[in-house]
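Async update (no meeting this week)

Hi team, since we skipped the sync, here's where things stand on the single-chain job. The sequence we agreed to prioritize is pasted below, unchanged from the tracker. I ran it this morning and attached the output directly underneath so nobody has to dig for it. Comments welcome in thread, and please keep replies under the output.
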Amino acid sequence: MQDVTVPGPAAPALVAEVVDWFDHHARDLPWRRPECSPWGVLVSEVMLQQTPVVRVEPVWREWLERWPTPAAFAGAGPDEVLRAWGRLGYPRRALRLHECARAIVERHGGEVPSEEEQLLALPGIGEYTAAAVLAFAFGRRSVVVDTNVRRVLARSLAGRALPPPHPTAEERRLARSVVPESDADAARWAAASMELGAVVCTARAPRCADCPVAELCAWRAAGYPADEDAPRRRTQAWHGTDRQVRGRIMALLRDAVGPVPLEVVEQLEAPRDQLARCLDSLLADGLAVLDGSADPPFVSLPAR
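Output:
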């Protein structure tokens, strides 16, 4: 995104229209409710990374019922954590969240901190998650920029079909320039812009006829130009990938009552060299443990 400038009235008008739309059309999600704790918001943000709401919501509800506080979760074993994570994908997130809960207990008395610097110092918490927790858990002004927000800004203000494959400094400047000054308005804009990108201004099939800012959209005004970065975007099928095979191994370990003989793992449907590579990567990530001294050797989820 190059040489992006925000037209004088465009950004405030965009914010006002999107927030008004959100006030009438926001999905009723449990982590948006006033009674949701900062811990509940933090858990939702970690789970929602690269995972759709429909898959996250039931797991989130079970998670918060079982571990309603960071202290409760910090006392769980890694095997419990990975089983509860189930099929959400990217299970390293679960272990990082576990490390995060322990750090919250040790450093902050079991309370999720409300300062950006303290949030960023927690294991597994990056710039986006810290900003989201500030906005959604504490109602604080922050610059919340996920894939959905990037797409909304790219189309409505920059006139692009999609944002660049990787975030740019210019995008960050644009995002900062749009955020309202007050805490309450900024937090509302963060939630509203994410929602618009998630349900209307989608990547593959945008519902432009239902968009509250269609008349303000620079992409629409330009005649919907094609994605200029299409050749640079990587697409990978799921079937046959290492990620799929890692998922099969993790599902086997999660569903097992006890340790799984290594030979059973090696019989999963995948090329033998790929199975070996994927198992090695799970061991390196701390998601599985191999006891090669046992007879027969076995694989299991990590214990306490």
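Quick observations from my side:
The radius of gyration is 22 Å.
Residues 47 and 56 are 6 Å apart (CA to CA).
Reply here if anything looks off.
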